[in-house]
């Protein structure tokens, strides 16, 4: 217990000292703090990673085969191997700070943190939270909420999708929420078009200059809902398929609208309200800091420290608890997050993250959307 308490104090001091420091070597603020915490003495006996690197060539060979990686030149291959070795040590640092999850080699292990953020994240927001004048969801009763809940079991969630190397996470978060809302409104699960948002949505956040939905360069879920409300709705995925690029022209056909937005609102930061809105209104569009997600493999991610700078849009589909947590003397409560990096990432495309402490900012930007029945359904 003393060791844990000392660790918490040390982490708190490091957070305070790190505030205001600039990003170093392409690392985000979260990466910088993590490196300082672990490399500055280790956590739970973590070594400096030298032992891990002894087998780096073997790990890299397995990685290339598993994920079908090939490189155009020896120079590129050697560069990616250096990045891979750095990410082995990074995964080890993440494991030390997030022992209830498993971290290791993923399909992103040959990417630098900045490359990963540029190609696979894409939330365009410099502030934490939502506009003061945003439409706020009404406060819901929280008595009698189920202990575990999962919209996947009720047929409200489409299969895991893959945004590819395009910073369009925001569009997948928005369509996922509307797919669930449309299911509640019509009884039918229809996969909706992210590409329509990528090509056609240029809605801007009025409170942030320059924060406009911008295809593979990022966007915001609430702005996507605003576009969908103004345009009349979204087409089906099969009618407007995803290409993973933003170089095409808008091909929106209003006669093929499959789902329309009735209204949308932001949810209180209170976790009981988030759970109540999830149960009543369907899957929720949420933002998160994805620093631990680059190396995540499975388990409940509950890092001792994580930046709350929001950089990734995902879909909240449920909650539960599992795994004994000795510090809390009970199971770890968690949120179930649907991601958009394909079913080969994480737990079949899903991420479990701790409930209770706004870990990685997961409670900071949450939106619910309601759908209306349309003729195309």
UniProtKB/TrEMBL annotation:
CDD domains documented for this protein: Peptidase_C1A
UniProt KW keywords: Disulfide bond, Glycoprotein, Hydrolase, Protease, Signal, Thiol protease
Pfam family, one: Peptidase_C1
The keyword NAD is annotated on this UniProt entry: no
A GO cellular component annotation in the UniProt record: lytic vacuole
Domain Peptidase C1A papain C-terminal, first and last residues per copy: 145-370
Signal peptide: 1-20
Residue intervals of the Cathepsin propeptide inhibitor domain: 60-116
Listed InterPro entries: Papain-like_cys_pep_sf, Pept_asp_AS, Pept_cys_AS, Pept_his_AS, Peptidase_C1A, Peptidase_C1A_C, Peptidase_C1A_papain-like, Prot_inhib_I29
Domain of life assignment: Eukaryota
GO molecular function, one term: cysteine-type peptidase activity
Gene Ontology biological-process annotations: proteolysis
Similarity-based family: Belongs to the peptidase C1 family.
Name of protein: Cysteine protease RD19A-like
């Amino acid at each position: 217990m003393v060791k844990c308490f000392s660790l918490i104090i040390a982490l708190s001091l490091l957070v305070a000292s790190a505030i205001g420091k600039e990003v170093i070597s392409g690392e985000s603020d979260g990466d910088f703090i993590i490196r300082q915490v672990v490399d500055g003495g280790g956590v739970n006996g973590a070594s400096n990673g030298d032992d891990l690197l002894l087998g780096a060539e073997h790990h890299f060979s397995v990685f290339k085969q598993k994920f079908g990686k090939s490189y155009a030149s020896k120079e590129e291959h050697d560069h990616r191997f250096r990045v891979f070795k750095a990410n082995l040590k990074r995964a080890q640092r993440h494991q030390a700070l997030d022992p209830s999850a498993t971290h290791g080699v993923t399909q992103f292990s040959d990417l630098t943190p900045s490359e990963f953020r540029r190609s696979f994240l894409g939330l365009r927001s410099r502030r934490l939270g939502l506009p003061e004048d945003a439409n706020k969801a009404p406060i819901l009763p929280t008595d009698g909420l189920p202990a575990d809940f999962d919209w996947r079991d009720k047929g409200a969630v489409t299969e895991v999708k893959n945004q590819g190397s395009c910073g369009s996470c925001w569009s997948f978060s928005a369509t996922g929420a509307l797919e669930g809302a449309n299911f509640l409104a019509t009884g039918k699960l229809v996969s909706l078009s992210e590409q329509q948002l990528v090509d056609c949505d240029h809605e801007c956040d009025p409170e942030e200059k320059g924060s406009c939905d911008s295809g593979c360069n990022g966007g915001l879920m609430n702005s996507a809902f605003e576009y969908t409300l103004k345009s009349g709705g979204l087409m089906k995925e099969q009618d407007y398929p995803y290409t993973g690029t933003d170089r095409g022209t808008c091909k929106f056909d209003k006669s093929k609208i499959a789902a329309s937005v009735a209204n949308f609102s932001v949810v209180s930061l209170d976790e009981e309200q988030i759970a109540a809105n999830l149960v009543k209104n369907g899957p929720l569009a949420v933002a998160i800091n994805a620093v631990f997600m680059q190396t995540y493999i499975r388990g409940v991610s509950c890092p001792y420290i994580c930046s709350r700078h929001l950089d990734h849009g995902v879909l909240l589909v449920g909650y539960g608890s599992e795994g004994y947590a000795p510090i809390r003397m009970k199971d770890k409560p968690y949120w179930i997050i649907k991601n958009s990096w394909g079913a080969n990432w994480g737990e079949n495309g899903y991420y479990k993250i701790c409930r209770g402490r706004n870990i990685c900012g997961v409670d900071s930007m949450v939106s619910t959307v309601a759908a209306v029945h349309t003729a195309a359904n």
